[in-house]
Write a structure and sequence with these properties.
Length: 287
C-alpha cells in the first residue's frame, strides 16, 4: 500500500498511539506547536494492524480502541494529515534507513520529526533516537525526542492503561487518558430478556478488546449527537448491554459509545426474574 505523497514541507510523528493518552497528547501538541512556529503541515503516521499482531500472531494485545476511534481522536487535536500505513511482514523488514527515507523523507517532504525518545523502528527495531539524529543530518531534517510522562511514580503507557481498565481502576485510567473510559461498538441482537422485564437493552459488540471487569455501571450512552443516561451490564462472559432512560428506538446496526461514570455493583446471580427486575430498578436509582 503506497502512502499519500505530500509536497508541502511537514513536521511528522510516528506511532501506534493506542488510546491517544496523555503521553501521546504531549507528542501531538509538540507537533502542532512546531508546525505553527515553522509554517509546516502537521502529519501523524500510524499503523494498522498493530505490529505485534503481525510479527507475533499468538500474542494477545487487547487494544484500547479501534483504528477509526484512534484516528478520530488524533484528527480532533487539529493535525493536518493522519496517515494509516498498513503494517505487513514485508514492511517490517525495511532497514531503519529505508524506513525513514522511503516512508518520510521521499513521500512526506519531512523537515521536522518528533517521536517519543524511546521510539524504536526498522528491521528488528534496530533504529533508535540516536540514529534519527544522525539521519536528520544526512537528510536535512530536525529531530526531537520527547521524554515519557510519569504519573503516580510510573510511566504513562498504553500497556499500563490496559491493565488499569481490565482490573477496574477506571478513575486512574481516566486521568492517564485525560477523558473517561469508553466502549465504542455496534448494537447487535441479543436475547431480549431486558425487554421482557420492562427494561429494554442494547447489546454491544465492541470494536476493541480492553473492557472493564464484569459488573453494573452508571454510564452515558452516545448515539449520533444525543446523550442518554443509562445502566450498563458486563457479564463474566463479556456480554455487554446497556439500558438507556427515556429511550425506545430500534438501533440495530448503529454505533454507540458508552462513557463510564461509576461502578454500581458487582455482577451477581438472581433466584428469580422478579428479584432481577427489583435489582435493575434499584440500579437505575444510582444514575
Amino acid at each position: 500500500m503506497r502512502m499519500k505523497k505530500i509536497s508541502y514541507p511537514t513536521v511528522v510523528t510516528i506511532g501506534i498511539f493506542d488510546g491517544v493518552h496523555k503521553g501521546h497528547q504531549k507528542i501531538l501538541k509538540r507537533v502542532l506547536d512546531e508546525a505553527r512556529k515553522r509554517c509546516l503541515k502537521s502529519v501523524v503516521v500510524t499503523f494498522d494492524p498493530h505490529p505485534v499482531r503481525v510479527l507475533s500472531p499468538g500474542a494477545q494485545i487487547p487494544l484500547l480502541m479501534s483504528l477509526d476511534h484512534r484516528v478520530r481522536l488524533i484528527k480532533k487535536m487539529g493535525v493536518d494529515y493522519c496517515i494509516v500505513k498498513k503494517f505487513t511482514k514485508e514492511f517490517s523488514k525495511l532497514s531503519p534507513e529505508e524506513f525513514i527515507r522511503g516512508l518520510l523523507v521521499d513521500r512526506l517532504n519531512l523537515k521536522v520529526l518528533i517521536t517519543g525518545e524511546n521510539f524504536l523502528f526498522g528491521f528488528k527495531e534496530k533504529g533508535s533516537s540516536k540514529l534519527l539524529k544522525k539521519l536528520g543530518r544526512a537528510h536535512d531534517f530536525k529531530y526531537y525526542g520527547i521524554p515519557p510522562l510519569k504519573m503516580g511514580g510510573e510511566y504513562i503507557s498504553s500497556t499500563r492503561i490496559r491493565k488499569l481498565i481490565e482490573k477496574g481502576s477506571l478513575g486512574l485510567a481516566k486521568k492517564l487518558l485525560t477523558r473517561p473510559v469508553t466502549i465504542l461498538g455496534t448494537v447487535v441482537k441479543g436475547k431480549s430478556l431486558g425487554r421482557e422485564l420492562g427494561f429494554p437493552t442494547a447489546n454491544i459488540d465492541p470494536h476493541h478488546e480492553s473492557i472493564p471487569p464484569a459488573g453494573v455501571y452508571s454510564v452515558d450512552a452516545v448515539i449520533g449527537k444525543k446523550i442518554y443516561r443509562g445502566v450498563l451490564n458486563i457479564s463474566s462472559h463479556k456480554i455487554i448491554e446497556v439500558h438507556m432512560l427515556n429511550f425506545n428506538r430500534n438501533i440495530y446496526g448503529k454505533d454507540i459509545e458508552v462513557i463510564f461514570k461509576q461502578k454500581i455493583r458487582n455482577e451477581k446471580k438472581f433466584k428469580s426474574l422478579e428479584s432481577l427486575k427489583r435489582q435493575i430498578s434499584l440500579d437505575i436509582h444510582h444514575i
